[in-house]
Amino acid sequence: MATPRGHLNSHIFQRMKKAVSLGLDIGTSFCCAALARTVDGALQTEIVPSQLGSSHLTPSIVGFTGPNDSPLVGELARNKQTEVGNCAKTFYDFKRVIGRKYNDSQLYKIIGNWGFALSESTDPVRRQQELPVYTVEAKNGLLREYTAFDLYSILARHLIDLAIARLAENEQLTCITVTVPAHFNSEQRLNTKNSVIAALAADTPVHILDEPVASVKAYTQQGRIDLTTFPPDKYIMVFDLGGGTLDVTILRKDLHSQSLAVCSSEGFCDLGGTDFDRE
Known about the structure:
Elements: H1 5-16, E1 18-26, E2 30-39, E3 42-47, E4 58-59, E5 61-63, E6 72-73, H2 75-80, E7 90-92, H3 105-110, E8 119-120, H4 124-128, E9 132-137, E10 143-146, H5 148-164, E11 171-180, H6 186-199, E12 206-210, H7 211-221, E13 236-241, E14 246-253, E15 260-268, H8 273-278
Parallel strand pairs: 1-11, 11-12
Antiparallel strand pairs: 1-2, 2-3, 2-4, 5-6, 5-7, 8-9, 9-10, 13-14, 14-15
């Protein structure tokens, strides 16, 4: 059967679109998105502005404070956080919760620092999985539960939408890379990756990259570090103190792949700038 001309032209146009990659740095306090595209043979990056355009940083906040308790994200959620009744349904710091069980001893140490509750689920499946949940009481009195995975996915979808809005008509998003702390375990990494996949409407590949490796790659791209001449017997130490996490990572150049390899890493999910401010 013949293919309709309009459908064929659309298919060809899709194949002709220029590939653009997206990097997501979803931090405990703030997050950032950047587009990478090749222009005249050179790699160019574009930092995606926040929703209100006031910064390139988006607060890592999700609040169910919109019309009919719909989710607001970033600046809009932060701006409504202090309104009466909104504190208990405006959530942050969920990077510290994703991939953790409700009975995690480290989680108990920080639960009291928040203005909202984190509890066991009433759902039998989530309860069996020991997933901690955030509970929102809707205006109609019904209770709705959200996991850190859910909130991560809402935030990721927000960042992806902002990035897609910056694409030209002849461009398409072909790859997403999400950074994670070097000390994240396999469960935290998998939850982070899957939360971004869940936020996608299209079948776009999602990759995970350690935050210290990403920072060194950025220095390399900017010409501050030349890996081609970097001695193999020398090391790079990355001290990454964020809003809610601390990582110290040692890297060196791998002689076979000529890329960076992590030698050792140590970090804390419960120590960051917000903790210094609180103390």
